Write the structure tokens for this entry.
Amino acid sequence: MAAAAMSCAASLRLISFKPTLFASSVQYPAKALILRPLKPSELPSYRRTIITFQKISTGTVRPPSASSSPSSSEDVQPIEELPPKLQEIVNLFQSVQEPRAKYRQLIFYGEHLKPLDPQFKTRENKVEGCVSQVWVRAFFDDQRNVVYEADSDSSITKGLAALLVQGLSGRPVPEILRVTPDFALLLGLQQSLSPSRNNGFLNMLKLMQKKALHLEVKGEEDSSSGESLESSFVPTPETNGGASVVDNDTESKPSFVEDLGAEDSDSGSDVVALGGRGKRIREKLEKELNPVELEVEDVSYQHAGHAAVRGSAGDDGETHFNLRIVSDAFQGKSLVKRHRLIYDLLQEELKNGLHALSIVAKTPAEV
Amino acid sequence: MEGVAMKLPSFKSLAPNAISIGHRSFSRVRRSSSLSVFSAASSSATVATSSESVSLGHRVRKDFRILHQEVNGSKLVYLDSAATSQKPSVVLEALQNYYEFYNSNVHRGIHYLSAKATDEFELARKKVARFINASDSKEIVFTRNATEAINLVAYSWGLLNLKPGDEVSLTVAEHHSCIVPWQLVSEKTGAVLKYVMLNEDEVPDVDKLREMISPKTKLVAVHHVSNVLASCLPIEEIVVCAHNVGAKVLVDACQSVPHMVVDVQKLNADFLVASSHKMCGPTGIGFLYGKSDLLQSMPPFLGGGEMISDVFLDHSTYAEPPSRFEAGTPAIGEAIALGAAIDYLSEIGMPKIHEYEVELGKYLYGKLSALPDVRIYGPRPSESVHRGALCSFNVEGLHPTDLATFLDQQHGVAIRSGHHCAQPLHRYLGVNASARASLYFYNTKEDVDSFVVALADTVSFFNSFK
């Protein structure tokens, strides 16, 4: 019984439940299915509490505070910011109106989740606060994208886990970290987003993001790439220049992350005109590293509470930068060594109010 | 305190195709056989001389506005009263009334409002005492809830009286609130906790408990009615056993006081605890019953105002019980509202409530056990074994969380899934979690029917994936 008022041209009939329907990628213009404003005042502004990275492979940076498009709700993460597979999943669920069919869909996802080897059902991998048991495992593939595996003894929870696994696997860490649980609202499963102890879905997502971050951090200690790492909670002891990674609490923002590892071929537009510090950084790096490519982006405005204003003059406002450097100077150096090199060059700035750098450091051959 | 004695029609005589007409006011169930007429002597039952008799559940539903709503597009069927009960309007009015007309701090003031508040507060204490047949209202200590009451005994009586090697006897089916405080206190005192397991009827093994009680035992802490197994322990017997060796007995009566007559004189327990929110009263208030001489011998639990006699810089002297154990401003309005809840229950009559629930509980058990692949925990009901009106169960191949979620989302049926604050019990039973449907006197046969239909639908939905 197709719902009478389906807004999309749904040739997708889900009465007879054919698995093949989901194997194919569903083509929907994403914007046509943009969410209805969902009582923004009631939604937790989750965005501000998770680690903020920006500048990922696709799309422009969207400052969290401003919302220019009338169709998107200010506090709910727009669908375009989600990893592509997750967008697909959300669209799929939105096209299914009938609640039972939604559940069927969800459970179908769960049933087709790759089983998790019992050896990974450890305490470390267990999601807190689920009435059912849920485990999540995360590791890097050889391109430093995070791969997830999960399992649960409850069908619905397994389905939710499968959504997250499918939606987030194979994606780079920063993209994963940007995802907020808002998208669950779009699924129409009446998934509560209240951050209670019992919210399995929320806690699942948090654990997956925490594990992604830890993989990132642990990865820095590891100079040989291609080795798959299990995420662990041991923070890297090696930090530099007064900045440190906070990894005990996904709620807090780390002030410093090394090598986003993203294969980005992004436009590198300097959204913000560089102020004094930004210019100095650029000069220094250019002089010392003779880069083939150099991007210095001031993203201080993204960090609420740092009293940073977009493009403000004066060093006080310039606290966070993204650097993308392609240079022969990195030849033969491990990731750690490359970053150390950059810090050493920017010692002065780090002493005087530069809070954090997000660095992509490659040799020309690696690009 | 006897309630009104009314003859309730038993369910067996209800025609299978009985129709109930809505739940807004009381609904009437049509029956083909002749009916007994009863006279309504209480204000809560306003059916006067109807020639049709109405079940208790139907009669009282109008007093509970919260039950008349839709959730997720279906009528609400509330089957989680073991977690918390719903409150009748008179209780809500009593609370509102207190704040609107005579809110004032108790025991301290001289002025009119505070005198009135104090009177009502102490009257509520008397009502509680009468409700459980305590010999004196001084034997009732108001606490935040039963959990706090047990902690009070643990920290006050326990720390003073438990020595290394002393034993505290518990059952594996205890609620966490009657396990953890003893763990905390035994760590501090060197006492040892001993647990009795279930017998083949899936009831705590009373024979083993008897054997376990020895001169080393200082305390036996057990539930009256289990919130998972629905079983009822023979408290009187256990108390005799315990007193023989000089041990005290604490009874967790959270699931019994709301549902049946509980007489502490008959039970002869040393301590008894219950929570208001499970017996139609508000949250935030509960009580500890303790025998006078016992409470007299106990040191304070929490320190502060109210519980003192004189305060100097270097020491203080303490008040007599119950004040000794009621530090700070109590939940005055809540206590008064609890008193109103007790009045409400008493007007209906606890024997009548119990009788109704035994029937309805049997009906629930019968319909649930008739479904394939359903495993209900606890004893089977029989002539000698009366279960409480709740069923914890599991369906083969279906996780309780999935079950409860689907029931709620698709059918508006509210049950609980999880370990129900009884993890050791679930571990013993070999499961991670169970689903639980629990009834109270405002539930009806139709509630049970709706639940069973919804459950069957849920099971078939999830089975379709296999």
